[in-house]
Amino acid sequence: MKNKKKFSTGAVVAAVISAVVLGFVGFISIIVASVFHIAGKASPEADQFLKLIGDGKVAAAYESTAFQYRSLQSADAFEKSVEDLNLNSFQKVFWSKRSIHKDHAERDFSALRGNVTTAGGDKIPFSIQLIRDGRTWKVLSFAKTENLDEESPGIELADSPELHNLARSSVRMINRGIVTGDFTELYRSLAGVFRNQTTPDVHRDQFTELVKYDLDFSNVTDQLAVFSEAPQIDSNGKLLLKGEFDVHPRKAAFEFICIFEDEEWKLISYNIFSYPNPPSIPSPAVIDSLTRSALTDLSDAFKSGDFTTFTANASNFFRQDYTAENVREAFIQFVEEKIDISGADQLEIAFTEEPGINEEGILTIFGTYRNTVNIVTFDIACLLEDSEWKLITINVATEPINSGEATETDPVDDLISFLENRFTINPDLDPAEFQNKLASLRRLISEIR
Q1: Cα separation of 76 and 59, whole Å?
Q2: Cis before residue 355, ω within 30 degrees of 0?
Q3: What integer pLDDT is reported at residue 413 of this predicted model?
Q4: Which of 130, 252, 342, 365 sits 20 to 30 Å CA-CA off 400?
Q5: Gap between the Cα atoms of 281 and 212, Å rounded
Q6: 372 and 402 Cβ atoms separated by less than 8 Å
Q7: pLDDT tens digit sequence for 326-363
Q8: By the 8 A CB rule, do 238 and 258 touch?
Q9: For position 66, what pLDDT does the model report?
Q10: What is the DSSP annotation of 247-308?
Q11: Cα of 83 vs its chain's centroid, Å
């Protein structure tokens, strides 16, 4: 028979909201020739862009790109991208795939894919994306493409201060709304399609959990974002940013989608959440103490039916969600059946997995011990709060020891028991001398072991 109850609360809080953007995507298949005619108009601009680079006119090539690109990539970042792709030795290009589509604002985008041949004869699989600017096409992004036969992916951007500034300013603007409760500034900064589908109150409601835990991301002022994925512009011209800032003692992770509107990049979707900075794993002595204390508190609660002390010793996260009475109800079977998990304060505990810190900064502990009645298995999770590890999850299971089955015993104890029985049969032996000999025998056997 096993009895099992689990109680937990999350350590990650998040908010996500986005606009529904219905774009016009795809290959215009009614008249295939028209696609190549329109997209073909973009290819001379792409050819000229690459020729400028091959002729050593890198600065001119940079100035010829779309303003959207230059707002995200500095001249230095552009030059580095050119060098990394070996475009300085550009000789010629053959475009094998062409497409054109519109975004929600009816702007034309053209994607070209093919092989760039260098002066040394090397072939570079290459993708370039352009946007129509009046009567001309301008480069929006470009990158090496591993597989020309796959669907056109987003094109990655080189790391640059502009990308960090955009991520940082977006996080700070959201933070000001969280701290003040007024999301009007954030609302006004959004792309028009996003504003039309929401109100400031809608955005405020998304951050109920972050406000509840008094989270503050204002100290990202001078930080660089750590991008978990390379920033990129997708095939619809949307900018994708995903990463995090270290706002000690937590991290602020973000996922932003932006479109270019009114000469700047504006949010049409955001997801922001917070989790603790992974702390260092505590010493074995601390882990042992945490384990014994939690299990002893729980054992005392099972016996008394009062979970006040157990709940008081848990983390703030735990207590914000659960009262002592809630916990009692969760463990009511243990209480009513008087299930015995005692002994954790004294008995030997075997850890069945190496204690560790997971990606959310949670300390996890798994183990088992055996008292006179039950084999007890457990898993415990703790969160570092105010420099002290506190319980956020505990899970226990018990399996009664079957007295009818043979159980493994210590052979030394068996021998001593046998000799003690022999002494009972032969009472002529001196009791004190006999006990001394037994103690000497036990020490000798222990040394041999």
Answers
A1: 10
A2: no
A3: 61
A4: 365
A5: 28
A6: no
A7: 999 999 999 999 999 999 999 999 999 999 998 778 89
A8: yes
A9: 93
A10: ETTEEEEEEEEEEEETTEEEEEEEEEEEEE--PPPPPHHHHHHHHHHHHHHHHHHHHHS--H
A11: 33
User: Rounded to 10 degrees, what is the CA torsion of 263, 269, 273, 277?
Assistant: -50
Count of residues making up the chain? 449
Q: Give the domains, in start order, of the chain with CATH numbers.
A: 13-20+161-276 (3.10.450), 32-156 (3.10.450.50), 282-400 (3.10.450.630), 411-448 (no CATH)
| Residue carrying structure tokens 């109150």 | 201
Tokens standing for 141?
Answer: 């992004």
Residue 108 vs residues 35, 90, 102, 132: alpha-carbon distances, Å: 12, 27, 5, 5
pLDDT tens per residue across span 29-71: 332 333 334 444 778 999 999 999 999 999 999 999 999 999 9
Q: Residues 374-429: pLDDT tens digits? A: 999 999 999 888 889 999 999 999 999 874 444 555 655 655 555 555 444 344 55
Question: What is the three-class DSSP state of 207?
Answer: coil
3-state secondary structure of 215: coil
- Residue (of 254, 225, 224, 260) closest to 239 by Cα position: 260
Read off the pLDDT band of 150 (50, 70, 90): low
Query: How far is the C-alpha of 344 from the C-alpha of 300, rounded, in Å?
Result: 11
User: 211-226: buried (b, 16+ CB within 10 Å) or exposed (e) per residue?
Assistant: eeeebebeebeebbbe
- Indicate the average pLDDT of the chain: 82
Alpha carbon distances (Å) from 138 to 47, 133, 162:
11, 7, 20
Alpha-carbon distance of 424 to 411, in angstroms, equals 20
Task: Collect contacts of 262-265 with beta carbons under 8 A, ≥24 apart.
Answer: 263/67, 264/71, 265/68, 265/71, 265/72, 265/166, 265/239
Tokens of 197: 């589908």
